[in-house]
Amino acid sequence: MKSTLRVAQIGAGGFGYRHIACLNSSQGRRFFNYRAAADPAFASNASLREAFERDGHRYYKDFEVMLDQERDLDAVTIAAPIHLHEPIIRKCLRRGLFIFLEKPPVPLLEQLHQLQTLPGQERVAVGFQWIASHPVQLAKRWIREQRLGEIKSLKALAAWPRRDDYYLRNNWAGSMEHNGTPVLDGPATNALAHLIHNMMYLGEFATDGFTSPRHSEGEFYRVRPTIDSYDLVCLRGELLSGPLYHAALSHACRQDIPFSILVSGTHGWLRIANDGCLLESSWGERHEYPNEIDEVYDFAFEDFALFCRGRRSRPFSTLADTAGYLMATSGALHASEGIRPVDAAWIQPYEEDGMTGYTLRGHTDFLTEASRTAKLFSELDLPWAIDRKISPRVSSLSR
Ligand SMILES: NC(=O)c1ccc[n+]([C@@H]2O[C@H](COP(=O)([O-])OP(=O)(O)OC[C@H]3O[C@@H](n4cnc5c(N)ncnc54)[C@H](O)[C@@H]3O)[C@@H](O)[C@H]2O)c1
Predict the structure, then answer these.
(1) pLDDT of 236
(2) Same domain for 155 and 96
(3) Atom of ligand 1 nearest to the CA of 41
(4) With 70 as the cut, is the pLDDT of residue 394 above it?
């Protein structure tokens, strides 16, 4: 690469630590000249300020002031709260910048469509980093080589426990809206959104790109009583490319189920498992990637740098590529007719490390069974689930 990219970061606290680590790493320094960061938390967080001063980076409380001052930037990375992505992207695109945008791009499909009308929108790389991972890339190759035959189904399964520390870390966790702006924070639309996006990638077998759902349905439940969003979800639909997709995802659990995606075809199956660190197949080929969780982010940042420099024609995920993810989640939420609070009689609170979490009896079993059978929770006749005989609905979707 001729010269390093002049880059600044928007959102340095929270998950922004990952961006800081990538930009400051020895590999990151080969690609990036990390100029500055903007975060309102610099006003109150002395240790964040000190870390930036020590590393010789400038810092700002307001990203617009930063963009005014740092006039020669090539790119920004955005790890700000989800509901702020859209206005921040608009302002950065007006400056002609390349953007590495944390997932999920925006909460709503309509917002994505609006962003797609803006000049320069093709300069946005969406940081769904798992697309860049070894297991997902190799799985996509096997699928394109038709090793599985005709793909029939894709199923994502995960339970990542979330307790007070997760929900109290900021003022939008567990919210559907913040100050009237959509957030849609929950397992399918934030922490485990990767799995839906990955299914749109692996479910497209004719090209290197992404597919989207023909229709989508789902059930969204609130187990944790202190949130207004959901923490337990199952969704299902049919992809334009043909196969069925299904996801059973939860934060309302005590026991972890590491994330997995099972892809089944007429000749065999493959499974990405152990939170993305393992790829196994029905024909016995098996690859372990013990360091993938840390390394995948460096791949994604390297790819972004090469894309900015014109050495890659497209990033791993463009804004347009995320339409399928947004159709699957928005469509399922629409079809679900909203979030159902689970009756308190079925909820089991637990205490761990001085923090409270919430779960339901038999959680691991019913989540696994929903995935195995590709059923919605109500179809398993769980006593707390909605009565589908009263309100079955499916959202038909068009791009
Ligand atoms: N790729 C992944 O695996 C992964 C993992 C975790 C979070 N994320 C994503 O990272 C993003 C941030 O999530 P989080 O959990 O760290 O959120 P957070 O709210 O905990 O942290 C966000 C940071 O942005 C700052 N911020 C708020 N308003 C800002 C503004 N106007 N300008 C600049 N900075 C501002 C906050 O002060 C905070 O430091 C989300 O999109 C989330 O989905 C991605």
Answers:
(1) 98
(2) no
(3) 37
(4) no
Contact 259, 267 (CB under 8 A): no
Tell me, yes or no, whether 109 lies in a domain.
yes
* Domain CATH number, residue 46: 3.40.50.720
Distance CA 119, CA 108 (A): 20
pLDDT tens string 226-285? 999 999 999 999 999 999 999 999 999 999 999 999 999 999 999 999 999 999 999 999
Q: Write out residues with Cβ below 6 Å of ligand 1.
A: 10-11, 13-16, 38-41, 63, 79-82, 84, 102-103, 127, 129, 169-170, 190
Show which of 101, 129, 157 is a domain's final residue. Answer: 129
Question: 3-class SS at 236?
Answer: strand
Distance 79 CA to ligand 1 centre (A): 4
> How many domains does the structure of the chain reveal?
2
Q: 170 and 123: one domain?
A: no
Q: Do 250 and 187 form a contact (C-beta atoms < 8 A)?
A: yes
Q: Strand 213-222 and strand 286-288: pairing? A: unpaired
- Supply the range of the domain harboring residue 86: 5-129
Cα torsion angle, 230, 187, 270, 198, sign: positive
Question: Given the CA of residue 193, which atom of ligand 1 is nearest to it?
Answer: 43
- Are residues 245 and 272 located together in one domain of the fold? yes
Q: What are 334-353's pLDDT values in tens digits?
A: 999 899 999 999 999 999 99
Structure tokens at 19: 């961006």
Nearest CA to ligand 1 atom 28: 80
Pairwise CA distance, residues 188 & 197, whole Å = 10
Q: Specify the pLDDT at position 1.
A: 54
Q: Which of 129, 154, 175 is at the close of a domain? A: 129
